[in-house]
Design goal:
Elements lengths: L1 E5 L4 H12 L4 E5 L7 H11 L5 E5 L5 H10 L2 E6 L13 H21 L4 E7 L23 H20 L3 E6 L2 E2 L8 H10 L4 E3 L6 E2 L2 E2 H13 L4 E6 L5 E2 H12 L5 E3 L15 H7 L7 H15 L3
Length: 317
């Protein structure tokens, strides 16, 4: 019996898959390896996973129902960890239909096939973006999230609603995970840490939105993976959990750490707030602590250093 991971060549999917493979689990990985960002990084992640005997990879788009169905038919899938999605708030402003395809149609394909396969648990990625412009901090799962301010956030909230329907009608155990600004080795090139590090090392300016008055709950990948793996093996009728560090950090402090560990000074290009963005995120993780045993421990000083060490080695800087 295996674990199906969609988006397995993505940042979080890769790390979750490797954690499970090290434990001796069978992992069936699905990813279309699209060109939203450099596909060579996705290929590199996949190649690491391919070193494990219990890993089987399919290059399939989750919007292709027939190919996806054949994967379910050819494997005994006990757990599903659905991480494939079109990510990013800003990209949703210019390419909305990619979100409609992956995050709505693709999500429905995966959850419907999971229902048909009678899997023991369906775990999926949501996002801290669903909290929109909520003023109460920290964000907790009981807060109202019916006023999203980006299409990306709207699709993630839609995923939570669809999961609730499948849980209610078909008794499919469903767990949604609201991720808070995940970073670390093999991270996404469209995320701030990756972009800032690259530009600082290349002597290029970095864009700093809201004139630097931003705070984020930066969460190291190892902490996220521990939360995801716990969610896979602890089934609930329907639950949603925040997975964050539970510490809101000033963006400028984050940038200073990048400067410290690259040994270079950043050239800052201060800009106003971007549409769809929010000034602060901060996760209340008490619910995840209680039910998942989630215990985030990696602070940004350690996390940023580990990312930059990886970056320098991977790109031979």
């Amino acid at each position: 019996m295996g674990v199906l991971i969609t988006g397995v060549a993505g940042f979080i999917g890769f790390h979750v898959a490797e954690k499970l493979l090290v434990r001796g689990e069978e992992v069936i990985g699905v990813d279309n390896i699209n060109s939203y960002y450099d596909p060579s990084l996705k290929e590199a992640r996949k190649n690491v996973l391919s070193n494990y005997d219990r890993f089987k990879f399919y290059k399939v788009d989750i919007c292709d129902f027939e190919k996806l169905e054949s994967i379910y038919r050819n494997h005994e899938i006990e757990y599903v960890c659905h991480l494939a999605a079109q990510a990013g708030v800003r990209y949703s402003l210019i390419n909305p239909f990619s979100y409609q395809k992956s995050n709505l149609e693709g999500f429905l394909n995966v959850i419907e096939l999971s229902k048909q396969a009678k899997v023991a648990n369906f775990v999926y990625a949501s996002s801290s973006s669903v909290y929109g412009n909520n003023k109460k901090l920290p964000f907790s799962e009981g807060d109202r999230v019916d006023t999203p301010i980006s299409l990306y956030a709207a699709t993630k909230k839609s995923n939570e609603l669809i999961a609730h329907v499948y849980s209610h009608l078909f008794e499919l155990p469903c767990t949604g995970l609201r991720f808070f600004t995940v970073y670390g080795p093999y991270g996404r090139p469209d995320m701030a840490l990756f972009k800032f590090t690259r530009n600082i090392l290349e002597g290029k300016p970095i864009d700093v939105y809201n004139f630097g008055n931003m705070r984020r709950d930066f969460t190291y990948i190892d902490d996220i993976v521990n939360g995801v793996v716990s969610a896979i093996y602890k089934s609930f009728s329907y639950e949603i959990f925040n997975l964050g560090r539970s510490k809101s950090e000033n963006l400028m402090d984050f940038i200073h750490l990048i400067e410290k560990y690259t040994g270079k000074k950043a050239e800052l290009n201060f800009l106003p707030m971007q549409p769809g963005d929010i000034p602060e995120t901060y996760a209340d993780v008490s619910h995840a602590r209680e039910l998942l045993g989630y215990d985030p421990r990696v602070d940004i000083e350690v996390g940023v250093r580990k990312f930059i060490e990886w970056y320098l080695d991977y790109y031979k800087v």
